[in-house]
Amino acid sequence: MTSTDIQADTAASRVGELTEVFERGLREKLGVGASLGIRLESAGPGFTRYYLDPNPATINAMFTVHGGVLATLMDTAMGSAVFTTLADGVAYTTLELKVNFIRSVALDGSRLTCEATAVHVGRRTATAEGRITDAAGKLIAHGSTTILVLQPQ
Fold first, then answer.
1. Residue 92 to residue 69: CA distance in whole angstroms
2. Rounded CA gap, 22 and 84, in Å?
3. Do 147 and 125 contact (CB within 8 A), yes or no?
């Protein structure tokens, strides 16, 4: 078995694990999927796509989607993109999150999609980038993260 085969097997395992965790959260009404409506659409090695249908729980006092909700969507997608590249037993946590908000989002039924990619994955840190777009493809926000990679003890 080549290192490429091992990486593909690891990614497939982690994507399956990620999907299972999100489905369990929805069944048991746990996590950002249940509380905010964030859903995993697809995932692959170093890549994830999540979506959010804005709802009354996601808005702020101006009746637009709260920036913290957008940051959570992006953090979830970017962290998950890194997760798909990590070996079994390796965990992660966000060290730094940078989000650039481009335009506000009204509560008009327009789906938001966040695509994220891992940029660098090392033994101790990783980085990723993400972009949120609306249903018309307009950029809503973009950002980056630095992730602490937690090796098993």
1. 21
2. 14
3. yes
Show Cβ contacts of residue 149 under 8 Å, excluding neighbours closer than 6 positions.
Answer: 82, 86, 90, 91, 92, 121, 122, 123, 124, 125, 126
Q: Round to whole Å and give the CA distance between 62 and 18.
A: 34
- Please return the burial class of 136, using the count of CB atoms within 10 Å of its CB with bins 0-12, 13-18 and 19+: exposed
The rounded distance, in Å, linking the Cα atoms of 62 and 42 is: 31
pTM of the entire predicted model: 0.89
Instruction: Count CB-CB contacts under 10 A for residue 7.
Output: 14
Provide the token pair at 85: 């590249």
pLDDT by 10s per residue, the chain, length 153? 344 444 666 677 888 887 888 788 778 887 787 888 899 999 999 999 999 999 999 999 999 999 999 999 999 999 999 999 999 889 999 999 999 999 999 988 889 999 999 999 999 999 999 999 999 999 999 999 999 999 998
Amino acid in the structure at residue 84: T
Whole-angstrom Cα distance, residue 90 to residue 86? 6
Whole-number CA gyration radius for the chain: 16
